[in-house]
């Protein structure tokens, strides 16, 4: 498929649904030095990846922004995340500047369990952060670490959504899975968590959490694609529950770090058994539009 063909297919998908475009809550833009390291890790098929994972959109930052715009993505994120202390505040500074220069990017911030986390998260909220990213797998931290209590309190009070990679896919971590998130929500029940990848592969457990917690949402990132279905397929028995929770499902792509096309990610959703146009309109645009105003 040529680039023009892919752009035409993506635009046809959302236009036939009567949408003005797509909102993608799970895209990555990072400082070049960090993105290059991320890509090298994917190239190495390292332990956190666990398999060959070619990057489909390995282009310059400006070209990636323009590609999303040509697809008709009306709003997207710059999900940055640290893997060690004293990194998050610097990433936040970069992300603030990126959002200022890229008005269709939802201003994004992140955090790590460290003594000053509460301070720089409060500063990020004051600076206009509209979404946070937490990566329990890569960061190798317990979301219930006491140093994060002021973080969770601040984002809960600000009602700022947090995209959180907490499922055990593609490979499990010490603190991944539903248990730590259940404990977190018992202490901070109003958190607006967006569980990345539908909680893959603990899909059922995270659907349970979503049903019990009115502010928890799930993003579709990578789910239902042939690449994921080879190893961690979404259980067909849970499709009815996924449809019933349609107002709390948000589209995410993981662009640019995907080993298939953006059109494939959309097609995997529109071909789901039993979903109707209203469900798709919510997932691809309307739910996120309501959440982010």
Topology at a glance:
Blueprint: H1 3-16, E1 22-23, H2 32-43, H3 61-71, E2 73-77, H4 88-101, E3 105-106, E4 108-110, H5 117-126, E5 131-135, H6 136-139, H7 149-158, E6 162-165, H8 178-187, E7 193-195, H9 203-212, E8 217-219, H10 226-229, H11 239-244, E9 249-250, H12 262-270, H13 277-292
Parallel strand pairs: 1-2, 2-3, 4-5, 5-6, 6-7, 7-8, 8-9
Describe what you observe in this structure.
This protein has 13 helices and 9 strands. With 293 residues, the protein is an alpha/beta fold. The strands form 2 sheets. A 6-stranded parallel beta sheet has the order 4-5-6-7-8-9. A 3-stranded parallel beta sheet has the order 1-2-3. The longest helix has 16 residues, at 277-292. Pfam families: Amidohydro_2. Residues 23-293 form the Amidohydrolase-related domain.
Give me some keywords for this one.
13 helices; alpha/beta; six-stranded parallel β-sheet; 293 residues; 9 strands
Radius of gyration: 18 Å
For the record, give the distance between the C-alpha atoms at the N and C termini, rounded to a whole number. Answer: 35 Å
Low-confidence stretches: none
- The biggest beta sheet, please? 6 strands, parallel
Provide the spatial order of strands within the biggest beta sheet: 4-5-6-7-8-9
- Gross morphology is globular
Question: What amount of the residues lies in strands?
Answer: 5-15%
DSSP summary: helix tally: 13
- Indicate the percent of residues in helices: 40-55%
Order of helices and strands: HEHHEHEEHEHHEHEHEHHEHH
- Assembly state: single chain
Mean pLDDT: 97
Tell me the structural class: alpha/beta
Number of strands: 9
């Amino acid at each position: 498929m040529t680039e023009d063909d892919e752009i035409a297919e993506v635009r046809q998908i959302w236009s036939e649904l009567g949408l003005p475009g797509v909102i993608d809550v799970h895209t990555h833009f990072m400082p070049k030095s960090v993105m290059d390291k991320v890509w090298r890790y994917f190239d190495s098929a390292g332990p956190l990846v666990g398999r060959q994972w070619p990057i489909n959109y390995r282009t310059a930052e400006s070209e990636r922004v323009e590609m999303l715009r040509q697809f008709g993505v009306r709003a997207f994120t710059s999900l940055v995340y640290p893997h060690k202390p004293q990194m998050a505040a610097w990433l936040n500074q970069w992300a603030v500047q990126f959002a200022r220069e890229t008005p269709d990017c939802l201003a994004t911030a992140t955090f790590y369990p460290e003594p000053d986390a509460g301070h720089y998260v409060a500063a990020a909220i004051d600076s206009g952060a509209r979404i946070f990213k937490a990566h329990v797998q890569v960061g190798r931290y317990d979301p219930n670490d006491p140093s994060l209590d002021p973080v969770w309190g601040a984002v809960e009070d600000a009602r700022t959504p947090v995209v959180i990679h907490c499922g055990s896919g593609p490979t499990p971590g010490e603190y991944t899975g539903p248990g730590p998130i259940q404990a977190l929500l018992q202490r901070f029940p109003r958190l607006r968590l967006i569980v990345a990848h539908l909680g893959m592969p603990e899909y059922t457990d995270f659907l349970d959490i979503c049903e019990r917690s009115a502010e928890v949402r799930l993003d579709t990132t990578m789910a239902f694609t042939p690449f994921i279905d080879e190893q961690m397929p979404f259980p067909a028995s849970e499709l009815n529950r996924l449809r019933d929770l349609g107002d709390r499902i948000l589209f995410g792509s993981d662009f640019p770090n995907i080993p298939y096309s953006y059109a494939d990610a959309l097609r995997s959703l529109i071909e789901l058994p039993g979903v109707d146009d209203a469900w798709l309109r919510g997932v691809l645009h309307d739910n996120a539009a309501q959440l982010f105003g």
